[in-house]
Amino acid sequence: MKKGEVTAFLSLIFILIISFISAMIESTVIQTEKNQKRLDVDRAVFSIFGEYQKQLLEEYEVLAIDISYGTASYREENLLDRMRYYGSVGIEHDIQGIQYLSDKNGNAFREQVLDYMEDTYGISIIRDLAGMTGQWQEQELNGEELGRQDSEWNTQLEETLEENESMLPAEENPLPNVESLKQSSLLQLILPREYQLSGRQINLSEQPGARTLRKGKGSFYMRQDLNGIEERLLFHEYLLKKFSNAVETKGENRSLSYEIEYMIGGKGSDSENLEAVAKKLLAIRFGMNYLYLQTDTEKQAEVEALALTLSTLAALPAVAGIVKQVLLAAWAFGESVMDLRSLMSGRKAALVKNSGNWQLSLSSLMTLGTGEDTQEGMDAEDGLSYTDYLRILLFLQNEDTLTMKALDRVEQNIRLEKNITNFCIDSCVVKLKLQNKAIIREGLEYQFPVYFGYETA
Fold first, then answer.
1. What is the pLDDT of residue 425?
2. Exposure pattern of 53-68 as b/e (b: 16+ CB <10 Å)?
3. Which helix (H) or strand (E) is 154 found in, with range?
């Protein structure tokens, strides 16, 4: 008799091998299905992020998906619909995180702008400016403080004259004319005669910075040095390159011609914004010119002589000291007007004043702003231009407010210049996190996350 132990043993081994191979095949099939689902979602995500808003990139170097896709529908579900179109049918998508361009006061916008500026121009474009920011802040503070002192001196002089029932003589007295000029339109005083003042205006309540914006959710990596001095200066250079101002026009059919002035002034019309900027520049120049007058002995002597004459004729020689300070401030104001005339004509105003580049005589204060006034500001070769002064004013602004004002202009310009009337800056997606659930087979589901965002660093 022959025994069958070996045959039975081999049969059991064969069954085990077949079971193992079947399990391996099953595991491979499942893993392949998982990988295929991941590939389907990855392909769909890459595809929708490839549908960036073209005009936003071409005009402003910023990548974002407009989830409205040119319609009046701003649902996040539009993104998921596009993903299904690109092959993720049968997979459930749950948006765990989404970031819009306008989130957190436009931080995503600033990140992309800084990346673009660093890659295109490098940090050297603002290196010389970084060491000057302390002076800019000091100039602003000096101008504000001296402006307050000027107001106090004028008030003190008026009260003293009233108490003594006296008044300064009108002859050879420039103070009434200067006081009248301070109450009138500054633009009429500084703009060249041939300058065509823009009449464009916007509705402030319709701007992104004023309306309730869509907000993203979830947490995303954010660049940590968004508001360093060099980063701020780089962002401001971007603004000066992409947006127009009163002496450098850019683009066509924009709702505002003075866009940089809007970012600084925040008013609804070009004329109001230019007036606001002009007043800020006047304050800065006033402080610098007044401080120079304190160092010029000849001009000091000229002012002292006139102050003594006026106070003596008013029978109040004791007020000569106050009159002197008021006259010095009036002269600094008049010289500042001449500086602004230079700037608005496309010339440069001297950064540091001396006897050679001082433009206005004390006697010319009598005719400043009248029909007899024909003076134009000089061009100082080593001075600062209007754009240079805008650079200073931009640095003195709050960065969050400045960023949102820039986004106001981006939205308006794309709507008007590109005729995309439904474009909204708060419908532009830059980063997305999804939790995905796919059914591999009955009773077996596969969940996995996917993240994608426009990042260059």
1. 95
2. bebbeebbbbbbbbbb
3. helix 133-163
The SS3 call for residue 152 is: helix
Which pair of tokens denotes residue 384?
A: 């600062």
**Residue 297 buriedness (CB in 10 A; 0-12 / 13-18 / 19+):** exposed
Distances (CA, A) of 314 to 23, 253, 354, 366: 112, 58, 33, 19
d(CA 326, CA 175) in angstroms, rounded, equals 8
Radius of gyration from C-alpha coordinates of the chain = 34
The C-alpha atoms of residue 194 and residue 240 are separated, in whole angstroms, by 24
User: In the chain, which residues have pLDDT < 50?
Assistant: none
Q: How many Cβ atoms sit within 10 Å of the Cβ of residue 130?
A: 14
pLDDT at 190: 95
**pLDDT tens profile 400-414:** 999 999 999 999 999
Give me the pLDDT at residue 253, please. Answer: 86
Tokens representing 381?
A: 């070769």
User: Which long-range contacts (C-beta less than 8 Å, at least 24 apart) are formed by 437-441?
Assistant: 437/91, 437/92, 437/94, 438/33, 438/34, 438/37, 438/90, 438/91, 438/92, 439/90, 440/30, 440/33, 440/34, 440/37, 441/33
Interatomic CA distance for residues 344 and 245, integer angstroms? 11
pLDDT of residue 6: 63
How many Cβ atoms from other residues are within 10 Å of residue 164's Cβ? 13
Q: Which residues pair with 429 in a beta bridge?
A: 65, 100
